[in-house]
Specification:
Layout: E1 2-6, H1 13-22, E2 26-31, H2 34-42, E3 46-49, H3 55-62, E4 67-70, H4 88-106, E5 113-116, H5 144-157, E6 162-165, H6 176-186
Parallel strand pairs: 1-2, 1-4, 2-3, 4-5, 5-6
């Protein structure tokens, strides 16, 4: 399968590209500028120039692909993650980027599968009940952008494409947020944010 990975150089993208290549897929990575071409190439993906925020550019980059996996994010470091403004660029990537992606996919008939990253923290408190994809949502603050991104991509399923929305839980990787969380754990601080009664 010919697969485009958006966010190929990120925390999610790097292992995703490796796995897709190992499975025998032809993998391209979106490079938003000439300065990102070498970084995309270093993942093993073939760099394709395009912008997640420009429909024409993105549609051109998607030509020749069967699937697109959007795992692009701009997760702020721990210091900036404590404020809503620290999440503004990540919200833009999720909301505007996914809307642009959906519009670009509509212009490229051969793209049949679209995958959008998101987070699992959008579920309403279900008490002791098991939560599944049909459980009620309660998006708020900086996590609301995840549900908007999913809604943008879900529209493509109504148009005959396969739209997959990932709800990722806790991510442990080689990123600044994980580094900060592990440092906090070494000091005896909790890793998961929640109510003190949880």
């Amino acid at each position: 399968m010919r697969v485009m990975v958006i966010g190929a150089t990120g925390v999610l993208g790097r292992p995703l590209v490796r796995r897709l290549l190992a499975e025998g897929h032809e993998v391209s990575g979106l490079a938003r500028g000439e300065d990102r071409v070498a970084a995309v190439r270093a993942t093993g993906a073939k760099p394709v120039r395009g912008s997640l925020f420009d429909v024409d550019s993105l549609a051109g980059a998607l030509n020749g692909h069967d699937a697109v996996l959007n795992v692009a994010t701009r997760i702020p470091d721990a210091r900036h993650a404590m404020t809503l403004s620290g999440w503004a660029e990540n919200d833009r990537v999720r909301i505007t980027g996914s809307r642009t992606l959906a519009d670009a996919v509509r212009r490229v008939g051969e793209v049949g599968i679209v995958v959008q990253e998101g987070i699992s923290f959008v579920y309403a408190d279900g008490g002791d009940e098991e939560l599944d994809e049909d459980a009620p949502l309660a998006p708020r603050g900086n996590i609301a952008s995840s549900t908007e991104a999913h809604a943008n991509i879900a529209e493509l399923a109504d148009e005959g494409r396969t739209a997959i929305r990932l709800r990722i839980g806790l991510l442990v990787a080689d990123d600044p947020m994980t580094t900060t969380m592990l440092a906090a754990a070494r000091r005896g601080s909790p890793l998961i944010i929640g109510r003190r009664t949880d």
